[in-house]
Amino acid sequence: MKLASFEAEGARQIGAVLGDAVVAFQPALDAARAAAGEPRQALPADMRGLLASGEAAMAAAARALAFAARPGNAALRRPLAAVRLLAPLQPGKILGVGRNYADHAKEVGGPKLAAPRIFLKPTSSVSGPGDVVRIPPAALKPDWEVELGVVIGQPAWQVEEGAALDHVAGYTVLNDLTDRALQFDHPIGMTSFGKGLDGFCPMGPWIATPEEVGEPWALDLRCTLNGEEVQHGNTRDLIFPVATLITWLSRFVTLQPGDVIATGTPAGVGHFRDPPRYLKPGDRLRLEVEKVGVLEHGIGGHETGDAA
To answer: Which residues of 32-41 are buried (b: 16+ CB within 10 A; e: fewer)?
Structure first.
């Protein structure tokens, strides 16, 4: 499934994308159960709640989607173009991984990492597909980073690597926007703060479940800025692959349903170009992860209200 959060007719709903349509889970499940003469079953109203409710809730969501897909049930399907896609979920926590692609680690420089380099992004940094991320006047060097986002579906604590992917609900596309001035120019480097400004974690357009994506070992990633390709990588080049990250993180913290791991970015970010290149109001970004989806968003000026 492609799990989506969306706004339609002024209401926020959760559901799944079906071709060029979207299905809201609760109305479709109500219709499916009514047709079978079964009592109503209430699903959580938000994506994080759905994931936390476990296998029974996910099975009900899948049943709702299958019922809506029947030829006679077109009324349960809305055109995707008629709704506003939102960030697929509001994570409990966002754990980022720095310098996790060999080519990006080379362009950044520094010693070879013996363990993942972790930072945090606050939930207030989350924004969604089509949003305009407004850059604060004090953020002098805003930069882009296309990433595979891993969404946790089952609690993970002290997980063995061979079982790590069993804890994954799905994958999303993520832009780990970063103010390089805060990260590198400040007397005390403030990586999490530079990556945690309002809206600095666009994600979406949905959560592609593992049966949609398959194993996350060889997925292409691309980022284009105003139509120009600026990043192209593949998850086969991750220094610490997805399963390794889940295992390592779960040694220290419990990963909960709805948590997101931003797995790192390939080479091609703006700060390490010659000359450096930073985002500005009016810029448009298109970020793609193979088999997961395409996330597009704009950049605006916070102080002027300029929008892309």
So the answer is: bbeeeeeeee
Pairwise CA distance, residues 259 & 40, whole Å: 29
Beta strands 168-175 and 178-179: pairing type? unpaired
Rounded to whole angstroms, the Cα distance separating 233 from 300 reads 27
* Nearest-angstrom CA–CA distance, 75 and 197: 41
Quote the CA–CA distance of 11 and 207 in Å, as a whole number: 20
pLDDT digits (tens, 9 = 90+) for 107-150: 877 777 899 999 999 999 999 999 999 999 999 999 999 999 99
Q: Which residues contact 296 (CB under 8 A, 6 or more apart)?
A: 129, 130, 284, 285, 286, 287
Phi and psi of 123, rounded to 5°? Answer: -65, -20
**Is the model's pTM score more than 0.90?**
yes
Structure confidence by residue, pLDDT tens digits, 45-90: 999 999 999 999 999 999 999 999 999 999 999 999 999 999 999 9
- Sign (positive/negative) of CA torsion 51, 57, 59, 64? negative
- pLDDT at residue 289 greater than cutoff 90: yes
Please give the Cα distance from 58 to 211 (Å, whole number): 13
